[in-house]
Amino acid sequence: xxxxxxxxxxxxxxxxxxxxxxxxxxxxxxxxxxxxxxxxxxxxxxxxxxxxxxxxxxxxxxxxxxxxxxxxxxxxxxxxxxxxxxxxxxxxxxxxxxxxxxxxxxxxxxxxxxxxxxxxxxxxxxxxxxxxxxxxxxxxxxxxxxxxxxxxxxxxxxxxxxxxxxxxxxxxxxxxxxxxxxxxxxxxxxxxxxxxxxxxxxxxxxxxxxxxxxxxxxxxxxxxxxxxxxxxxxxxxxxxxxxxxxxxxxxxxxxxxxxxxxxxxxxxxxxxxxxxxxxxxxxxxxxxxxxxxxxxxxxxxxxxxxxxxxxxxxxxxxxxxxxxxxxxxxxxxxxxxxxxxxxxxxxxxxxxxxxxxxxxxxxxxxxxxxxxxxxxxxxxxxxxxxxxxxxxxxxxxxxxxxxxxxxxxxxxxxxxxxxxxxxxxxxxxxxxxxxxxxxxxxxxxxxxxxxxxxxxxxxxxxxxxxxxxxxxxxxxxxxxxxxxxxxxxxxxxxxxxxxxxxxxxxxxxxxxxxxxxxxxxxxxxxxxxxxxxxxxxxxxxxxxxxxxxxxxxxxxxxxxxxxxxxxxxxxxxxxxxxxxxxxxxxxxxx
Amino acid sequence: xxxxxxxxxxxxxxxxxxxxxxxxxxxxxxxxxxxxxxxxxxxxxxxxxxxxxxxxxxxxxxxxxxxxxxxxxxxxxxxxxxxxxxxxxxxxxxxxxxxxxxxxxxxxxxxxxxxxxxxxxxxxxxxxxxxxxxxxxxxxxxxxxxxxxxxxxxxxxxxxxxxxxxxxxxxxxxxxxxxxxxxxxxxxxxxxxxxxxxxxxxxxxxxxxxxxxxxxxxxxxxxxxxxxxxxxxxxxxxxxxxxxxxxxxxxxxxxxxxxxxxxxxxxxxxxxxxxxxxxxxxxxxxxxxxxxxxxxxxxxxxxxxxxxxxxxxxxxxxxxxxxxxxxxxxxxxxxxxxxxxxxxxxxxxxxxxxxxxxxxxxxxxxx
Lengths: 590, 367
Hints:
The complex is a heterodimer of chains A (590) and B (367). Helices cover 70% and strands 0% of the residues of chain A. Chain A has 590 residues and is mostly helical. Helix content of chain B is 23%, strand content 35%. Chain B has helices at residues 44-52, 100-109, 115-129, 144-156, 174-191, 202-208, 226-231, 236-241; strands at 5-12, 21-28, 33-37, 59-64, 67-71, 76-77, 85-88, 162-166, 194-199, 211-216, 219-224, 246-256, 259-264, 269-273, 283-288, 294-295, 303-313, 317-324, 327-334, 345-349, 355-359. Chain A binds chain B through residues 197, 199-200, 202-210, 213, 217-218, 221-222, 224, 300, 302, 304-308, 316, and chain B through 52-54, 56, 79-81, 83, 85-87, 89-97, 106-107, 110-111, 140, 144, 147, 151, 154-155, 158, 164, 167, 170-171.
């Protein structure tokens, strides 16, 4: 690199400007980005940390930092309720993760390594749960598996079977967690299996090991980093989820960290500083797991030399392949078909009470009454409009910011870009709910009316999903060869001109896809909205939870269907835009 | 210990395309090394993988040591782990999560071998490949050549009756390849194991194989010791593949035993070796290796007049392009002096023994 190209890289638009001026401009750009990031990420987290060690109520008393003391935090740690919530969280997530690993591994093995028929369908069905909003999935399972009125129990009773299931339990929580977060394990392990040199397994077979032994002594150890990494990721996501434990755990009085935090702020008077302290605990646990996952991913990866392109190595299962197909179809039915049916039945039936199986097909029992009631509620309409508005602003501003950051990190030599990189990645380790509590602390005590407007929701979402957006954008930025930009500079275009006429047009599909992704993530977000909405700024996810907690199953199901259809259309649109370029991005933030 | 390999009418048809292996038969006596040689896509690796049991043949029969291991017609298919064979892969396929010793010990774990015997065998195998002091290293810390030695030790430690090698040297750099090539033959011969070796590299095939089988489009064209392969190629493809790049065209006037007198296309008579199937009156093409043509020797009964058309000087050798019977051929002359200028007439000697006539309908079809 000569000094000329370096200068060009930082600010070639100022071809005639002096060296000092150029440097000043570069620094002001960096400082601008750092300032925005500080406002979005550092300041709220700092306020959260301070909030955790005070015992004030910022709404009533304003901020009183002189009363800050670690004792408050230690008192929260010693609180048995907090400990129970922490232990519950760990049990539910550990159980859910274990189940997710089993399901995910079985599916990646079936899809990548066997000759099971309809593999494409199986591959698709194994990632479908990623697209289902957790709250909707939980509501559907509550309709199916609640101890008294659950559809499955009704069916069992009408069949004269004495067995009943109860999903309002730790077991139910674990089962739903495991089913819905298996795709994380699946995605990691399936790609690891696909990238593994099949001769490694063949060598084991030739040297005398049977199929099962090969699986356990060679295959699984080799993809261990992928297994562990998928495991940690699903654990992290489960830990930060509010919807599922709120729907399935709360009726049985099982509180996890997320639901406990919300409960603290819903008490009167709200215990904001205790909530902040528990949120810090949640953030620390998540942070440790994220760090562990990064270590696993950057650690030893078993890349081996291979001359030939791998042949897909499909184990011939013979008649057993019908068993694996059956298993896959069973999963598809349990995870997709049953919940959808439950929502449809509950949403369109006047009364959910079903006496017998034949009763289900009685068309007189069906009507649009729940949808009518939903639409008659002005709050419902407002929540839809609000959600769309927040989503659009989040996508527009968040997308532009992510592009600026992504470009600065990946394509320039600007000073301070490492710092920008690190700060913009931080939210990965902050669960949505914690973002909500942090924003609450950061803005509630300040005048100016940001708290209570839809802007605080948009800002929180932008911060929360920044790492995902930047990652999605960076991928498409990386694909634009550096020389295309350099050629434009040589032709006399400045940096901004090059971005406008070369980079943006080429990155457009990626930018649009990233913005749509951000839009989808924003409109289904529940955790951070919980602390930031008011009746004026009600959003869909929160209202859905309200309906559920209000006990109106019919309207809840109807609203769930509305949201699901809305999301399905949007996701279909994104997939069409990115044409398979960014699989599974939607699911990352749970 | 080592056993004969017998492959009869082996056919392998994948879901699409022409058969990958199309009626291949050959026999490898115990203790012999046979190399399957051919361009990529000729079916050599598929043949090897069928012998290993990693690929399931469509038809034909494979027996190892007199026992059938694969006979689709009878529904017989012995899985790889019960064939008692060793295999070395192109990508080494050493397990990166194990040490050198663990890799080598792996096959013994599934066999009834006592602890002391296991240690002894591992030590023996590592010594054989010269990796004794590397036993406790993780394999990822080794170089490519060392990894391939680990793979070799692993495939020999349980004294298999047959060793299969699938282009084991093709991922190594040129210098290492030469060294390991000679080591490989020494080690295989030392253990006395029967070996089937697949490669696309001729010099490797010649250095390693007791016999070489040339394959093309799923068929085994010729299986013979190297000297036979180079001096009596069975068909034009084999001749061309092994380096006989000159082609002259003519018609058979008469036959004398193994040889034939030809009337050349551009005029003139020529004597060449011809397979028995070539009859009088048939149109033929004659393949000649550039190295087998002697330049400027007078008085021999098989010398012909040619003219230098072009000359390419390579330092230690010179390649001439000559006009002979109105056709262009290439001749290589060793030595640093280029003795014939462009345009000058030159005498060539073409011993009939080293000129091979094949039916004009055959195609060299290479590359």
